[in-house]
Specification:
With 244 residues, this protein is α+β, with helices and mostly antiparallel strands. The chain has a domain of 165 residues. The chain contains 5 helices and 12 strands. The strands form 2 sheets. It has an 8-stranded mixed β-sheet with strand order 2-6-7-8-12-11-10-9, sandwiched between helices. Helix 3 packs across helix 4. The N terminus is likely disordered.
């Protein structure tokens, strides 16, 4: 009886795995130029990348990366992209409009239109200040890290507790999806996006022992809003892959 039950459970698991493989489709790979600590970098080359999304979604999306296949974000086809990098980590912006790259290193105050921004901050470097700020907001299990970094006195003082208007959905102690409402400050406006009349969705993810942080912010035009959850879930899958 136990053996039969195990066999049935195993079969179900195998069927799910096969089903998952069948739903993986190829999407266009778009290499993005970047600039940072050691100067401008050319866009990485690629043709396609396989992701487990529907064929309909794949026809509307591409995988953008400034740092090589497997490190990037899904975004609508035909958008512009640009990456930044340094000792603290890296970031990638994707927008339907050309990105003012010159202001990113001088008078940058964020983008107010549709935009996708994903940042990867290293907790063992100067990126720890960004990591600590987000931990203080939404990862209470790692509060000790945020407090220790704050006591260094080199970054902005961390404010503990969620942004008042953010809606948070915890997927575990290291993953939290969020929505920052229109005209509100929150995780969505923490770095790359300025508040405007549209809400911002995304996810914050901690990985590794350090820990490191991935922060995604997505604000799509209304006609493409149905793609938001697909973009968020792919970033979560990428982070899960990197944990292994």
């Amino acid at each position: 009886m136990i053996l039969a039950l195990w066999a049935q459970t195993s079969l179900v698991a195998q069927e799910k795995a096969v089903s998952s493989l069948r739903t993986a489709v190829s999407v266009q790979f778009i290499g993005c130029k970047s600039d940072g600590q050691v100067g401008p970098q050319e866009a990485p080359r690629g043709t396609t990348i396989s992701v487990p999304i529907s064929l309909g979604a794949a026809q509307k999306l591409a995988y953008y990366s400034a740092f090589g296949e497997g490190v990037g974000v899904l975004a609508p086809r035909g958008w512009y992209c640009f990456g930044t990098y340094g000792s603290s980590g890296s970031a990638l912006l994707v927008s339907p409009q050309p990105i003012d790259t010159a202001s990113m290193f001088s008078t940058w105050d964020g983008l107010s239109g549709p935009i996708i921004g994903v940042s990867n901050w290293e907790g063992g470097s100067s990126g720890r200040f960004q990591v600590a700020e987000i931990i203080a907001r939404v990862f209470p299990a790692y509060e000790e890290f945020a407090t220790r970094v704050m006591e260094e006195g080199l970054g902005r003082p961390s404010k503990f507790g969620p942004y008042p208007k953010d809606a948070l959905t915890y997927k575990g102690k290291t993953v939290v999806e969020y929505r920052t409402p229109a005209q509100a400050d929150g995780l969505g406006t923490h770095l790359w996006l300025k508040k405007n009349g549209s809400s911002i969705d995304g996810v914050a993810i901690l990985t590794g022992q350090t820990p490191d942080l991935t922060l995604l912010s997505v604000r799509l035009p209304p006609e493409l809003s149905g793609l938001t959850s697909i973009i968020v879930h792919q970033v979560e899958r990428d982070a899960e892959r990197d944990r292994k």
